[in-house]
Specification:
Strand order of the largest sheet: 1-2-3-4-5-6-7-8-9-23
Distance between the termini: 83 Å
Order of helices and strands: HEEEEEEEEEEEEEEEEEEEEEEE
Strand content: over 45%
Number of helices: 1
Number of strands: 23
Largest sheet: 10 strands, antiparallel
Shape: rod-shaped
Structural class: mainly beta
Oligomer: single chain
Length: 382
Amino acid sequence: MRVSSLNLLPAAALLAIAFAAAPAHAAEGEDGEVVKTTTETDGPLKIVTEEDADGNTVKTTTETDGPVTIVTEEDDEGNTVKTVTVDESDDPVVEVVESEEDGETKKIVRISDGDDAVVIIETSDDDDDDDDDDDDDDEYVEEIVEKHHHHHRDIKWLGLSAGAVFYPGGASGRVSSADGRLQSNQFKACAGPGNAACGYIKGMDIKVKYFETGGTWDYPRVVGYFRTGFDQGRAVFQPGDEGFQPGQATRLDYTAVPLFFGGNVYFLKDFPIRPYGGLGAGFDILRLDYRRAEQARVVDASARIGFELHGGIEVRISNYISINAEVMQLWSARRKFDRLPDFSNTGLSMLAGVTVGIPVRLDRRNHDHHTTVRKVRRVRRD
């Protein structure tokens, strides 16, 4: 008798629906392969039973209560593995794994805090059949201390800074002809020749900076620098009651080129607006131009040792570009003359500038390092 294939379609459809709706599934498989899985859920309790082709079953029970998670695995031979995990957000994570197999109990306690971890392994033999053998009653405790050291690659940077130097008070530049000791803060700021260049800006500040970071967005705490540039000023002497005597100074122009090494220390590590302080020392290449009454001018050049203290605010947009403003107090050795007023490049200045950072080297020597310290001791049970 011949049966049309069209008549078998309804039966095949019903069979497919029946398999899809079943809560547990079974299939033929090789030895050890899971062929049936049953899941039961009751609130925070979840039970999963897996059965292989030989009829062996593994029952996994998971229970969650806040930060505590308990997972218990049990097979049909009575072997169990119980895992208790406590995870309190930023606190150290505690995980306890206790297993019983073939009469042996093994407990593993792991405490993790970031990259560091302590692992304690305790193994004991529960077989009391041979009481005469003392070695069977020994308990082994194995303690493992794990330490992870993560070393970021250091990036070395060069920064090129350029800015303006200001007189904060704006001195008038008029001094008495009887004043035998002059300081730069008495001079009128003149960034160039002629009266049109005189005002509040007295020069330019140029720095070459060096710093290291652990990454592109890791800001430095310490920055070293070499400072140069120039600042200029002019003073006009006011005559006494009898006017200027021959050879007496009537005007003094100075130019100072600093050659200073120094450093900055930043008080905030990660915030982009960072106050800082620092100091430096070096030499001023000083040029003095004395105009004298009825006599030729005197031009002198010398190197004067100096020292500076400064503090300011930096806005670090990134390590590639930053803006800063600072106040600097400078002390410089005095240049002495026999018949002319002495001069010292000493005074208070304000600086404002922009720094452009350039990565120049990536340190390849740093790498991730893992250290494990293992301690094993034997404990005799009573």
